[in-house]
Amino acid sequence: MDKSAEQDKTLAAKQSAVEVSVEISKQDASFHFPSVDELKGKWKEHVGAAKVVWGQLTDDELLRAEGQAQKLIGLIQQRYAITREEAERQVKHFLDKLK
């Protein structure tokens, strides 16, 4: 991939992250991530929804996250070049919608 295409891909990922961020309202500070066991059992059912929200992540990456919020946050932060706080906010919003 040439440098221009790579820059375009990075810019598109950042723009996508900003669009997701705009949709997310501030979450209650008392939010607690579900336990790994709570998510792990149903995670395969939620991979499709996660793929819609974070299209830059592959199905394999999402499956390997196994519903673990911290793994998902790290993947999103890295792929979309956003702050950890923003990635946490996005994951909190996503998990809230699953309830």
TrEMBL record:
<dbReference type="InterPro" id="IPR036629">
    <property type="entry name" value="YjbJ_sf"/>
</dbReference>
<dbReference type="Pfam" id="PF05532">
    <property type="entry name" value="CsbD"/>
</dbReference>
<protein>
    <submittedName>
        <fullName>Uncharacterized protein YjbJ (UPF0337 family)</fullName>
    </submittedName>
</protein>
<comment type="similarity">
    <text>Belongs to the UPF0337 (CsbD) family.</text>
</comment>
<dbReference type="InterPro" id="IPR008462">
    <property type="entry name" value="CsbD"/>
</dbReference>
<dbReference type="InterPro" id="IPR050423">
    <property type="entry name" value="UPF0337_stress_rsp"/>
</dbReference>
<feature type="domain" description="CsbD-like">
    <location>
        <begin position="37"/>
        <end position="89"/>
    </location>
</feature>
